[in-house]
Amino acid sequence: MTQASVKSERAAEAVAQHIEALILEGSLRPEERLLPERELAERLNVSRSTLRDGLKILEERGLLTGAGGRGSRVAALGRAAITDPLLAMLARHAEAADDYLEFRGIVESAAAGLAAERATEVELARIRDCLGRMDRAHAQADPGEEAEADAELHLLIYEASHNLTLLQIMQALAGVLRSDVMQNRSRLFAVPAIRELLRQQHRAIAKAVLDRDAEAARRAAGEHIRYLRQASHEIRTAEARLELSLRRLNGGHAAARR
What we know:
The chain is mostly helical. It contains 12 helices and 2 strands; from the N terminus they run H-H-H-E-E-H-H-H-H-H-H-H-H-H. The termini are far apart.
C-alpha cells in the first residue's frame, strides 16, 4: 500500500467519523438527505473522491442509504428493530398503545427536566420558534400542521436533554409509533377544544424549559402524557361501543335480516 493510499483511507475515515458524529448527536436526523456531493465536499474541505469513500464507509455501516440517485440520506436508524409484523401486532392490542404512552410519560418527564437544566440558547430559541409555529397553526385551524409542530416540539426537547441515548431511541420510536393507530393524533387534533387544551399543555412544558424550571418541566410533561392516555382510552372506548352498536344493527353481517 502506498503512502498516498494510506493518507486517502485516513481522510475518508475522518469524513465518515465526522458525519457519524453528526448523526449521533442529532444534527443529522434519520431519513434526512445530505447536501449534494459537490457542496458537501466543499463544506468538509475534502476532494469529492475522498467524500465518496467516506460516504461508502457509512453505507457499509448501515448509517447512510442512497437517495434514489439524488445523493445520500441518513438511514432510518433503529426503526428496523421494530419490524412491521411487530408494529401490526401492537396496533391490534389497545393495551400496547397505553403501555407506549406510559413509557413516554416516564421518558419525556425526565427529558423535559434535563432540557430545562441543559438546553443551550440556540435550543431555547428553536423551542420558541416551534411554539410560534404551533400558535400560527392553531389560529389558522390547521390541525395537521399543529400536530406536526407538536411532534417537532417533543423532538426538540429530546435534543435539548443532551442525552444521546435518549435522543436516538426516541427518534427511532417516534418514526414508527406516533401513528394515528397508536396515539389517535388525528382524532385528538380534530376536536377544537382538545386542540386548545393540548396547546396549553405544550406551552406549559415549553415555558418550564425556557424558564429553566426542571421540576415544573417534569410535572408538565407528565400531566400532558397522562391526559393523552386518558383521552386515547376514551376514544377507543367510544369507538368500541359504536362498533358494537353497528354490529347489533346489522347482525354482524351474519344474520339473514331484511
